[in-house]
Amino acid sequence: MRTSIFLGLALALGAGSAAVPLDASAQSARAARAQAEGSMVLSGSIDIAPDGSVEGFTLKDEHKIEPYIQDFLKQNVARWRFEPVLRDGKAVAAKTPVNLRLVARQVEG
């Protein structure tokens, strides 16, 4: 995904480079890279315990997701807390679908 974003930026920036001096073109490319971001939407489900803590988290098509992204999500989702789900006035376990949008930006340094 990152390759296609940078390829698209390179093509967009390269299209106007003939009319722009080299220094300005290089500065524009640096500025564009600094502002570039990538995103993905992932689907899955969360198992919620009666106390509102997360008991489980699964991602749809997990085999297509990089392991470091899976680890990042699982570590963070495990810390989430929900209002307990009540059924007839009693807190119960629940399962809910989830769609997550991850956005990545390049940091300086």
TrEMBL record:
Sequence ranges assigned to domain TonB C-terminal in this UniProt record: 29-99
N-terminal signal peptide: 1-26
Alphabetically ordered keywords of this record: Signal
Signal keyword on record: yes
One of the Pfam families matching this protein, by short name: TonB_C
InterPro entries membership: TonB_C (IPR037682)
GO BP annotations listed: transmembrane transport
SUPFAM superfamilies documented for this protein: TolA/TonB C-terminal domain
Source species, domain of life: Bacteria
The protein's name in its UniProt record: TonB C-terminal domain-containing protein
Species annotation: Stenotrophomonas chelatiphaga
Organism lineage string: Bacteria, Pseudomonadati, Pseudomonadota, Gammaproteobacteria, Lysobacterales
